[in-house]
């Protein structure tokens, strides 16, 4: 029996390593360690597995859960399906959905029966892994085996479709559920309303709120938060405020998420004084701001160049036991870099590693851009090298930022080397990249090279935009090639690109 598990684990591992490309962090790697290692003493000691299932699942780690599963399948008689279901549910709550699918396959091979609860766990895992075709196929199999879908079954499918940006399919599943006599609960309504809001269909979401209330399903704070967030993202500020008032009338108090959505909208709309008032309202209501609240406020302060206050807010959140993450750090570093206070940004950048906060591509890109802006290209290049050395992959924005800095400083040859390295890494340059290079070439008088690069764009599958044409025309004019520039202007209009007031 152990051989069959190990054999299955090998094929599962091979498949997942190919798909994931990161064996060190994949949940499947833990399965491999578990299945291929020598049998260790069961960590539960002499404890009965039932005691573990009753009392020890909440704090159990994945490896221990896998050992418990192996221990259970060795027991005779086999544990009940209810016991296996508890374990699968616990692993699912760890968000190790592919592990649950794998263990369910092992149970099938061992002839362990299943019930509706177990089937719902598996179907939910398919949905969470974005394997919706398998989820639908499994739904059909469930019904053939005599398991009538429950409200939980439909809820998982609706959630899966919404997460996969298939809102039309989610609505169809909802209608099918209602037509077959099921009454949607608040969770399913909330899932659909949130999905509609995220797909910019706020009016449809508001209609669903009305239907929900007509059907006697009472909206909760999650319902209203989704709608408020959707209204804010649609720039319907007054409607969002009305929704807050409406929810208060129904004796549902706004929570931190509600205030975060409103503060975010205020910051984006440039109404920071209103954001500050909302923050004060939170404290009056004894609501503790979270990391999102502080990050939004710090971002707003940075946008208005109130950097001293932003730093004070940063220190205040730490004093309250709310420790900044990579997003918070990146926001404040960006604020300093935009104000050309790159040394302050670098201090925070170094502080991140001291506090165990892992820098990401955005953090590095912000700092590289900051040093490029103040003309310290050597430092920017060193940060870029350190980024690659640390295993943080640059994206197209990172490359474009560095190329822009190099070209602005007239370092065209070095920029072309970076461009070549970028392409060797498998990343394709976009029109912004080539606009930067063309502009840099024109700036140092290499108009012929810029023209050659412009002429190659069609071959590269890229369409020139207004900036490409404007840059190239200015370069030609500066070289006294007025006729060629006028011809390019005519071609720009033929391509349907209308001239505007942009300049380079």
Automatic annotation (TrEMBL):
<dbReference type="InterPro" id="IPR002885">
    <property type="entry name" value="PPR_rpt"/>
</dbReference>
<feature type="repeat" description="PPR">
    <location>
        <begin position="150"/>
        <end position="184"/>
    </location>
</feature>
<feature type="repeat" description="PPR">
    <location>
        <begin position="115"/>
        <end position="149"/>
    </location>
</feature>
<feature type="repeat" description="PPR">
    <location>
        <begin position="290"/>
        <end position="324"/>
    </location>
</feature>
<dbReference type="Pfam" id="PF13041">
    <property type="entry name" value="PPR_2"/>
</dbReference>
<protein>
    <recommendedName>
        <fullName>Pentatricopeptide repeat-containing protein</fullName>
    </recommendedName>
</protein>
<feature type="repeat" description="PPR">
    <location>
        <begin position="430"/>
        <end position="464"/>
    </location>
</feature>
<comment type="similarity">
    <text>Belongs to the PPR family. P subfamily.</text>
</comment>
<feature type="repeat" description="PPR">
    <location>
        <begin position="360"/>
        <end position="394"/>
    </location>
</feature>
<dbReference type="Pfam" id="PF01535">
    <property type="entry name" value="PPR"/>
</dbReference>
<feature type="repeat" description="PPR">
    <location>
        <begin position="325"/>
        <end position="359"/>
    </location>
</feature>
<keyword id="KW-0677">Repeat</keyword>
<feature type="repeat" description="PPR">
    <location>
        <begin position="220"/>
        <end position="254"/>
    </location>
</feature>
<feature type="repeat" description="PPR">
    <location>
        <begin position="395"/>
        <end position="429"/>
    </location>
</feature>
<feature type="repeat" description="PPR">
    <location>
        <begin position="255"/>
        <end position="289"/>
    </location>
</feature>
<dbReference type="InterPro" id="IPR011990">
    <property type="entry name" value="TPR-like_helical_dom_sf"/>
</dbReference>
<feature type="repeat" description="PPR">
    <location>
        <begin position="185"/>
        <end position="219"/>
    </location>
</feature>
<feature type="repeat" description="PPR">
    <location>
        <begin position="465"/>
        <end position="499"/>
    </location>
</feature>
